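Hi there,

I know you've been waiting on this one. I reran it after we fixed the sequence typo, so this is the corrected version. Both the input and the resulting structure follow.
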Amino acid sequence: MEIVRGERTAQEIVGLREKVRMDELEDFFPRAMTAAAEALGARGVEPSGPPVALYEDMSAEGFDVTAGYPVPAGAAPSDDVVAAMLPAGATVEVVHEGPYETLTAAHEELTAWFRENGMPSPTVVWEEYVLGPESGADPSRWQTRIVYPVG
């Protein structure tokens, strides 16, 4: 797994936001992606990238997750979904290849990288689901970009 530094511009996303425990993610994601896709479809707005999940306020009880799609600036939320912003600035990123069940190991490797480099682990992270179940690809070939803002 190659860890790279990057630079991002702010990116608006529209999705469903909930406080979720790790064991609830499997049920949350299909519901969130469907709600976001329906809200965007009703407005005639096309996503501007792959599905994404923004994780904030992580604790032992769970974390706030906004899961949906990146959108052009100003694509307003609806009664069912909210807008959130992926922050601009410096990042540390990795592309994980494999099923979603193995993402925890990639996050653990990144946490170790931060520790080894004398940096605090960021409290915000997002995942971009570049290639997933909708592709028909074998789960061992799925690709998820994990992005930690560091700036």
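Quick highlight: Residues 4-149 form a domain with the Multidrug-efflux Transporter 1 Regulator Bmrr; Chain A fold (CATH 3.20.80.10).

Best,
R. S.
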